[in-house]
Amino acid sequence: MTAGTAAPAAPRTPPDPGRLSINTATVRAQWDLGQILDGCARLGIRGVSPWRDQVRAFGLEASARRVRDHGLAVSGYCRGGMFPASTEAGRRAARDDNRRAVDEALALGARCLVLVVGGLPEGSKDLAGARAQVRDGIGELLDHARPLGMPLAIEPLHPMYAADRACVNTVAQANDLCDELGDDGLGIALDVYHVWWDPDLPRQVARAGRRRLLAFHICDWLVPTRDLLLDRGMMGDGVIDVPAVRALVEAEGYDGAHEVEIFSAEDWWKRPPEEVLRTCIERHRDFG
Amino acid sequence: MTAGTAAPAAPRTPPDPGRLSINTATVRAQWDLGQILDGCARLGIRGVSPWRDQVRAFGLEASARRVRDHGLAVSGYCRGGMFPASTEAGRRAARDDNRRAVDEALALGARCLVLVVGGLPEGSKDLAGARAQVRDGIGELLDHARPLGMPLAIEPLHPMYAADRACVNTVAQANDLCDELGDDGLGIALDVYHVWWDPDLPRQVARAGRRRLLAFHICDWLVPTRDLLLDRGMMGDGVIDVPAVRALVEAEGYDGAHEVEIFSAEDWWKRPPEEVLRTCIERHRDFG
Fold first, then answer.
1. Is pLDDT above 60 for A6?
2. What does the mean pLDDT of chain A come to?
3. Among A242, B81, B199, B221, which is least packed, fewest CB within 10 Å?
4. Average pLDDT over every residue of A26-35
C-alpha cells in the first residue's frame, strides 16, 4: 500500500434513531434524575443509563417508577466494579456494594450492570495483582448476579485510567475475562472513547461477538484533550470515526442502544440541558 | 489465585549507575544544551539524549564537539517521525526533515534516532490510513538510514497520544512494523510511561528481544495526572514499577542506557536544574 491510499471507509449507514440512549452523566451537572428522565421522554429519546448516585439522590423506587411511567429502556446501570483494595475489609465492602448495585439494576430493569473494575489499590504498583483481584471480584459477583439474571458488562477503560479507575484497558482483556469466567451473564460494554485507538479492535469485537456485546457507548475524543477525565467531546467534534466502530458491532449483530456518555466539565455541563439533549439527537443522526 | 495473592515481585536488583542517561527535555526549561551537557558531565552522568530544537539552537557542530569533549554517550536523538500528512507535499517535507534528522544523529554519534511517528493528519479520522503512512514513511527512511548505519527506534506512545502525536501505541504494533520492514537497523524505544499499563508487555518485550531494544526510557506516572503531555513524574513519585519493566528488558540482554525523560511544566521544569539532575541520579539508584 502506498502512502495515503488506505482503503476508503465504507459508506456510512445512518443509525436507527430509536437506539439513542442518554447516559445520565451527560447532563448530570444541570438536572437531577427525575428531570433527566422527563427531559428524555419529552424529546422522544427512548433509552437512558442512570448512575447510582443520581438514583440514590432521587430514590430507587421513584426512579424505577419514573422510568416505567415514561416507558424508557434502561440500556445499562452505572456502575459496579472498583474491586481491588489493599485490605480484605476493603474487598468485602466492594463485594457488598456491588451486590447492592446488581439488585438496584434489577429494580430498574437495566439491560446490564456496567463494571468499571477499579485500578491500583492505594500505595500499590502491582498492576498484575490488581488485575487478579478484578478477576476474582467479578467471579464472586457473578455468583450473585447470574441466578438473578442481571448481566455484568465489563467496560475496558482507556489505558490512561489504568492506575486510578480501571486496570482492564483493552477489549482483549475483557474477552480474556469472559473466556476465563464464562460468558453466561458476562459481557462487555464497548465505549468508543476508550477503545478507538486500539489496532486490535476489529479482531476483538469479532471475538466478543453478539453474545458478549452488552452495551455500546459513544462520544468523541477532542484534540487537544484538556483534562483526562472531564473533557470528552460530542460526536462530530473530535477524531473518533464512530460509524466505523458502530459498523464493527453491527457486523456482529449488535442491536442494542447507542448510549451517549459525555463528561464535560467546561463545555456540555455548562450548557442548557435541553440543548445538550437536542444536540445528542442531532449528532447521533449525523455522526453516530 | 485468590484475591490479593498475586505472585510477589522479584527482589529488585539495583541498576548500574553508569547506565543513567539524561534526556535533555528533562531540564530544557532551565538550561540550554551546552549547560545541560556541562551539568551532566560535572555530576558524573555518562549519557545524554538531546532534542533537535536544542541542538539547532546550540549548533550541531558545537553540540557534537561538546559531547565528545565530555566523553558523553548519546543514548538516542529526539526525534524523527511525524510521518502522516494530508498532502503529498506534507509527506515529502516530513521525509526530507527525517533524513536531516538521521544525518544529525550521525554527527552526534547517537545510538539511534528515536521515531515519534505522528498521529492523524489534520481533519482526518482515518487511523488505519495514518498507520499505513507511518509504515511507508519508516520504510522510506530506512533506505536512507540503513546504508549510513543509523538505527531507527520506533517509540510506541501511550494511547492518549494516538490522535496528535503517535498512532503506534503498543509494543506489539512496533514489533509488527519491525517484522514487516525488517529489523536490520530498525528497533524499538521502550518508555515505561507509554507502556506500563499494557497487559501484553512481557510477551512483547520478549518478542522484541535484545536486537530490537534500542532504548529504554524511564520516568513515572503520577496519580492524578493533571496534563496529558507535561505532567510526567520522577521515578518513585508515581505508580510505575520501573524495576519490573527494567527486569523485562534486562532478561532479553538489554545493556544500554536508562534514559530519564520527564516533561513537567509545573514541577521539575521549575526547579534548579542541578537539583533535578541530582534527583535523577538518586531516584535512578532507588527506584530505577
1. no
2. 96
3. B199
4. 98
Residue in chain B nearest A166 by alpha carbon: B197
Distance from CA of A40 to the nearest CA of B (A): 30
For residue A258, what is its C-alpha cell?
Answer: 447507542
Q: Stretch A154-168: mean pLDDT, rounded?
A: 98
Chain A partners within 8 Å of B173 (Cβ): 199
B68's grid cell: 565528545
* b/e per residue B228-251 (b: at least 16 CB within 10 A): beebbbbbebbbbbbbbbbbbbbe
Q: Which residue has the cell 509545573?
A: B266
Asked if B126 lies within 8 A of A9 by C-beta distance, the reply is yes
Helix, strand, coil shares of chain A, percent, nearest 5, are 45, 15, 40
Distance CA B74, CA A59 (A): 63
Helices within A213-272 (DSSP H only): 242-251
Q: Mark yes or no for CB contact A160/B158 under 8 Å.
A: yes
Query: Looking at the predicted structure, is the pLDDT value of residue A3 above 70?
Result: no
Look at residues A283, A279, A287 and name the one whose alpha carbon lies nearest to residue A240.
Answer: A287
- pLDDT for res B1: 34
Nine cell digits for residue A9: 471507509
Extended strands (E) in chain B: 20-23, 47-49, 73-74, 77-81, 113-116, 152-154, 186-191, 213-218, 258-260
Res A8: pLDDT = 52
Query: DSSP readout, B151-206?
Result: -EEE-PPPGGGTTTTBS--SHHHHHHHHHHH-STTEEEEEEHHHHTT-TTHHHHHH
Determine the Cα–Cα distance for residues B91 and B80; give it in Å rounded to an integer.
Answer: 13
CB-nearest partner of A126 from B6, B160, B164: B6
Q: Name A186's bridge partners.
A: A152
**Rounded mean pLDDT, B53-69:** 98
Chain A residue with CA closest to B162: the answer is A197
Nearest one of B239, B87, B246, B182 to A127, comparing CA atoms: B239
pLDDT category of residue B10 using cuts at 50, 70 and 90:
low
Q: pLDDT-based confidence at A9, cuts 50/70/90?
A: low
What global pTM score does this model have? 0.96
Residue of A nearest to B92 (CA): A3
Q: Are A178 and A145 in contact (CB under 8 A)?
A: no
Burial A144-172 (b: 16+ CB within 10 A, else e): bbbeeebbbbbbbbbbbbbbbbbbbbbbb
Of residues A6, A91, A225, nearest to B132 (C-beta): A6
